């Protein structure tokens, strides 16, 4: 998830009572809720390193105890079992929220590189912002009203709104699981080119929980089509009709590309790979993209390319070439 969401989740955890575990508890918890994203600094070393290391060690349950210790040291909070467990809870909130995204996290890294993902929420989700920012606004409004009428500060209302926000967040995520499963079922029930799908993915929309981006694999093709749970599902001729893309036949040049470091990193990370093969002068251009974040027409930044000559030699390979 985005860091505004993580920060607000940490604030809600503070307000339900975890901030009382130490002086500067709220600051500690908001930092802890963002701590796993310290690995985002690898972005400055290039896309290859970002793909390779972002959401790895710092997003693992194995390293959670270490990540929980850092915020305590940064704000010079009181180190105790109570504050340490509170910090761990905030770090865990980060992992749970990231688990809901299609990007996924390797919860068991480095024991296993498998990425767990629920595919139910976008990295930016407007309704999660509404829930969490609504609790902040409601608390501020209650404080303003109490100040106007001269009433004593009401910490109970502050705690109540925080509990309500966390409860609504859990309920929202549960509803997304239900609608995600429904979208998968709708896609799975159709025939594509006269054949049942071999695999389907339903990818979330940032604003509409009933709208999903469907990715359907069939024999020799992939269909990318919108899924509107409030309307009829017609993947190829309905409103906003989808597109069918033919899967490239394997060629020896693919093996050559896969031996290069950029392609090795990308294949370990990608959950929905798709090859594009384009003839160029004296060889082939090979593009490998991830259909979770782009299409063959618009692959976005999550694709890697290689130029291979007729002798099978990779002339160059990397991101953004």
Written overview of the protein:
- Helices cover 42% and strands 17% of the residues.
- By secondary structure, it is α+β, with helices and mostly antiparallel strands.
- It has three domains: 3-174, no CATH class; 191-246, no CATH class; 252-319, no CATH class.
- The strands form two sheets. Strands 1-2-3-4 form a four-stranded antiparallel beta sheet, covered by helices on one side. Strands 5-6-7-8 form a four-stranded antiparallel beta sheet, with helices on one face.
- Helix 1 packs across helix 7 and helix 2 runs parallel beside helix 5.
- The mean pLDDT is 92.
Summarize the structure in short:
The protein has nine helices and eight strands. It is α+β, with helices and mostly antiparallel strands.
